[in-house]
Specification:
Blueprint lengths: L2 E3 L14 E3 L9 H5 L4 H25 L2 E3 L10 H7 L2 E7 L12 H7 L1 H9 L13 E8 L18 H18 L36 H5 E5 L10 E6 L21 E2 L5 E5 H18 L3 H19 L28 E3 L6
Parallel strand pairs: 1-2, 1-10, 3-5, 4-5, 4-6
Antiparallel strand pairs: 6-7, 7-9, 8-9
Helix pairs in contact: 2-4, 5-8
């Protein structure tokens, strides 16, 4: 039986009984020698894969800490192409309600969405662990902050507009239209392309991946969103709204919340909006995303995964990873299939950088 090392605020999925959940960033990594000092071909594949997972989590946390900001009170603003591309290959969007800087803790609105990744990322990763697709910025959700009021660091009495479900759905539909309309722009870019943002000290920049042909606006992204309307709660205690937008025409089947009924805290009259713990919301979206991928296989995307995996294999054969050279046979399939969990002492969730 493999042991799973994850986040303390995270609960192991009930349908994955072969993994036991242990505290986040444990002092002892049962696979430490495999990770830091790979000595066999199998260990080299494992170590490289874990390094890629850490890099992926770090990027998602940086994205959550510097999210796209939208208003619900007017038309969509101009959106950088790197933010546009970051909406693709996501199962949903997580909208964070507008709120001012907290006077006592001096925490910015960005702090809460970044900290929530300590719950969101492990919950998503647990579904398939080392078989998780982490290429082409694939992830469960795009973080979006809603800001309809000028916020001042010390002006704690500033009135803040409270968005409604209708506000969020309207904004999301406008965003989806923009995402669909702008995709041809990527074909005309000269790479490498960097976003046109002010050069602020300490600013984080994200380029645009020139392999834009592997980025998809998923039907599920249009159809289902998450709304955090009580953002000051601790991440592990967050209750969020799962919202059906009505844009379900391209799904394999309609969305229903029957599978999470015991975990629903409240819902609206027609059942299109339910309030659940954030862990439940992420698990539900992840399962729907897998359902849609199985219903509509994407051959071109799979070819992209294989291509990226071949690039990684060439990197390993040249001895660039941990100064060790991979000398084994070519693994079959993408690198999402290269790690055999049954041969591991533990399954380790990528460590947090927040």
């Amino acid at each position: 039986m493999a042991t799973l090392r994850g986040t303390g605020a995270q609960e192991a999925r009930g349908d994955v009984p072969k993994f036991n959940l242990l505290p986040s960033n444990p002092p002892e990594d049962l696979c430490q020698s495999r990770f830091y000092e790979p000595s066999t071909n199998e260990d080299i594949l494992y170590s490289w894969r874990r390094h890629k997972e850490i890099e992926h989590r770090r990027k998602q946390e940086r994205r959550a800490g510097t999210p796209m900001v939208l208003s619900t009170l007017g038309p969509l603003p101009s959106i950088d192409l790197d933010d546009i591309q970051d909406c693709y290959n996501k199962a949903t969007a997580i909208y964070w309600a507008d709120y001012r800087f907290h006077f006592k803790t001096r925490q910015s609105p960005l702090t809460y969405s970044a900290k929530a990744m300590n719950v969101i990322y492990p919950q998503w990763f647990l579904a398939k662990v080392h078989n998780t697709d982490i290429e082409f910025n694939n992830f469960v959700a795009k973080t979006i902050n809603l800001q309809d009021t000028e916020m001042y660091r010390y002006a704690v009495d500033t009135e803040v507009y409270q968005q409604t479900v209708a506000d969020v759905v309207k904004t999301h539909k406008s965003l989806c239209k923009r995402l669909a309309d702008v995709k041809p722009v990527f074909e005309s870019l000269v790479y490498p392309y960097m976003p046109k943002r002010p050069l602020l000290k300490g600013a984080l920049f994200f380029g645009v991946d020139e392999e834009f042909m592997y980025y998809r606006l998923r039907p599920l992204f249009r159809a289902l969103i998450i709304f955090v309307d009580n953002p000051l709660s601790e991440p592990q205690d967050l209750l969020v709204k799962l919202i059906r937008t009505g844009l379900e025409d391209n799904l394999s089947a309609p969305i229903d919340f029957d599978s999470i009924k015991p975990e629903i805290k409240s819902q609206n009259d027609d059942g299109t909006v339910v309030t659940v713990p954030i862990q439940t919301a992420i698990r539900f979206v992840t399962e729907l995303d897998e359902r849609e991928k199985k219903a509509f296989p994407d051959k071109e995307y799979e070819e992209g995964l294989i291509s990226r995996s071949h690039e990684g294999l060439e990197y390993l054969r040249n001895g660039f990873h941990m100064e060790e050279t991979y000398t084994g046979k070519d693994p079959e399939g993408p690198h999402t299939t290269w790690v055999d969990h049954s041969r591991l002492e533990a399954v380790v969730v990528p460590r947090s950088w927040v």
